[in-house]
């Protein structure tokens, strides 16, 4: 019996190397069947694994851009989307503030100047922070909050990231200027610690938004990628509309 087993094993081994055919008398034995099944399963699993690895390397991360005026409620809604739809929230502003605070950052002072003056940081800095955060997260669904904010941002994203990602849509929180201002001032008064939640910076941020960011939203609108949400009601009401958009776009 043992000799028979050794012979079959050797024969299977040579088969695996593209060798000989099994002796006829073993081809229907239980032992042969078991070894054959085990080999078949091993090869089958290997093939599945290879296909899965290939799929994982070719499926691009899904991205939703979240845009709107300063204080429109983008961050607030992103937290709710994360809870409900398992997205990863990447706020470009938060990433820039983190980079500003990072010891030894060569961009710290530049970022501070841009933020305080409501100007938009050059895309090379912001896009690299976004790409690193996406890679480090190991996740595949991203809300990119507060980006792209001007033509330089959009061009940089198209150069560096659009080929590697799959843009789903642009979520635009539409909110009147005076409401946005009151929300930012309120946030400052409740201790946000942000150097730009004051009237002086806000005037500049709103000007930048009107001059540089609105044209980007209009561009996305012209290519049918914008989902507009009325951001003036309370946050839960706003989220009901947001939820509808995600469900309608296939997210569960
Ligand atoms: N629908 C809402 N109704 C009332 N207040 C809101 C609403 N949504 C957010 N807020 C409040 O307004 C302030 C700004 O909200 P949030 O930080 O979400 O805005 P944002 O668009 O991310 O702002 P920014 O672009 O400046 O980062 C916060 O204090 C938040 O609690
Ligand atoms: O892509 C971006 C995003 C943000 N900034 C700068 O940061 C501040 C604050 O951004 P919030 O989204 O309000 O947190 C913004 O006014 C810009 O100065 C940027 O340059 N590029």
UniProtKB/TrEMBL annotation:
<feature type="binding site">
    <location>
        <begin position="119"/>
        <end position="121"/>
    </location>
    <ligand>
        <name>a ribonucleoside 5'-phosphate</name>
    </ligand>
</feature>
<comment type="similarity">
    <text>Belongs to the adenylate kinase family. UMP-CMP kinase subfamily.</text>
</comment>
<keyword id="KW-0665">Pyrimidine biosynthesis</keyword>
<dbReference type="InterPro" id="IPR006266">
    <property type="entry name" value="UMP_CMP_kinase"/>
</dbReference>
<keyword id="KW-0539">Nucleus</keyword>
<dbReference type="Pfam" id="PF00406">
    <property type="entry name" value="ADK"/>
</dbReference>
<keyword id="KW-0597">Phosphoprotein</keyword>
<dbReference type="GO" id="GO:0005634">
    <property type="term" value="C:nucleus"/>
</dbReference>
<dbReference type="InterPro" id="IPR033690">
    <property type="entry name" value="Adenylat_kinase_CS"/>
</dbReference>
<dbReference type="GO" id="GO:0033862">
    <property type="term" value="F:UMP kinase activity"/>
</dbReference>
<dbReference type="GO" id="GO:0006207">
    <property type="term" value="P:'de novo' pyrimidine nucleobase biosynthetic process"/>
</dbReference>
<dbReference type="InterPro" id="IPR027417">
    <property type="entry name" value="P-loop_NTPase"/>
</dbReference>
<dbReference type="GO" id="GO:0005524">
    <property type="term" value="F:ATP binding"/>
</dbReference>
<dbReference type="GO" id="GO:0005737">
    <property type="term" value="C:cytoplasm"/>
</dbReference>
<comment type="function">
    <text>Catalyzes the phosphorylation of pyrimidine nucleoside monophosphates at the expense of ATP. Plays an important role in de novo pyrimidine nucleotide biosynthesis. Has preference for UMP and CMP as phosphate acceptors.</text>
</comment>
<feature type="binding site">
    <location>
        <position position="233"/>
    </location>
    <ligand>
        <name>ATP</name>
    </ligand>
</feature>
<keyword id="KW-0963">Cytoplasm</keyword>
<dbReference type="GO" id="GO:0006221">
    <property type="term" value="P:pyrimidine nucleotide biosynthetic process"/>
</dbReference>
<dbReference type="GO" id="GO:0036431">
    <property type="term" value="F:dCMP kinase activity"/>
</dbReference>
<feature type="binding site">
    <location>
        <position position="187"/>
    </location>
    <ligand>
        <name>ATP</name>
    </ligand>
</feature>
<keyword id="KW-0547">Nucleotide-binding</keyword>
<feature type="binding site">
    <location>
        <position position="153"/>
    </location>
    <ligand>
        <name>CMP</name>
    </ligand>
</feature>
<feature type="binding site">
    <location>
        <begin position="146"/>
        <end position="149"/>
    </location>
    <ligand>
        <name>a ribonucleoside 5'-phosphate</name>
    </ligand>
</feature>
<feature type="binding site">
    <location>
        <position position="194"/>
    </location>
    <ligand>
        <name>a ribonucleoside 5'-phosphate</name>
    </ligand>
</feature>
<feature type="region of interest" description="NMPbind">
    <location>
        <begin position="91"/>
        <end position="121"/>
    </location>
</feature>
<feature type="binding site">
    <location>
        <position position="205"/>
    </location>
    <ligand>
        <name>a ribonucleoside 5'-phosphate</name>
    </ligand>
</feature>
<keyword id="KW-0067">ATP-binding</keyword>
<keyword id="KW-0808">Transferase</keyword>
<feature type="binding site">
    <location>
        <position position="97"/>
    </location>
    <ligand>
        <name>a ribonucleoside 5'-phosphate</name>
    </ligand>
</feature>
<dbReference type="InterPro" id="IPR000850">
    <property type="entry name" value="Adenylat/UMP-CMP_kin"/>
</dbReference>
<dbReference type="GO" id="GO:0036430">
    <property type="term" value="F:CMP kinase activity"/>
</dbReference>
<comment type="subunit">
    <text>Monomer.</text>
</comment>
<protein>
    <recommendedName>
        <fullName>UMP-CMP kinase</fullName>
        <ecNumber>2.7.4.14</ecNumber>
    </recommendedName>
</protein>
<keyword id="KW-0418">Kinase</keyword>
<feature type="binding site">
    <location>
        <begin position="71"/>
        <end position="76"/>
    </location>
    <ligand>
        <name>ATP</name>
    </ligand>
</feature>
């Amino acid at each position: 019996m043992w000799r028979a087993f050794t012979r079959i094993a050797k024969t299977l081994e040579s088969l695996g190397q593209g060798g000989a055919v099994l002796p006829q008398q073993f081809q229907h034995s239980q032992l042969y069947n078991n070894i054959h099944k085990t080999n078949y399963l091993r090869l089958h699993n290997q093939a599945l694994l290879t296909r899965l690895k290939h799929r994982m390397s070719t499926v691009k991360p899904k991205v939703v851009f979240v845009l709107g005026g300063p204080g429109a409620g983008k961050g607030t809604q992103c937290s709710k989307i994360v809870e409900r739809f398992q997205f990863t929230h990447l706020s470009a502003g938060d990433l820039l503030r983190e980079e500003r605070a990072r010891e030894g950052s060569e961009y710290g002072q530049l970022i501070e100047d841009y933020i305080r003056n409501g100007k938009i940081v050059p895309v090379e800095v912001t896009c690299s922070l976004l790409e690193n955060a996406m890679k480090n997260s190991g996740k595949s669904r991203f809300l990119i909050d507060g980006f792209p904010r001007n033509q330089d941002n959009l061009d940089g994203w198209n150069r560096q990231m659009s080929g590697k990602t799959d843009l789903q849509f642009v979520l635009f929180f539409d909110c009147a200027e005076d409401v946005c201002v009151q929300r930012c001032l309120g946030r400052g008064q409740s201790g946000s610690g942000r150097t730009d939640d004051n009237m002086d910076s806000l005037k500049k941020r709103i000007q930048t938004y009107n001059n540089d960011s609105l044209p980007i939203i209009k561009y996305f609108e012209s290519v049918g990628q914008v989902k507009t949400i009325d951001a003036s009601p309370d946050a839960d009401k706003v989220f009901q509309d947001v939820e509808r958009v995600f469900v309608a776009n296939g997210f569960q």
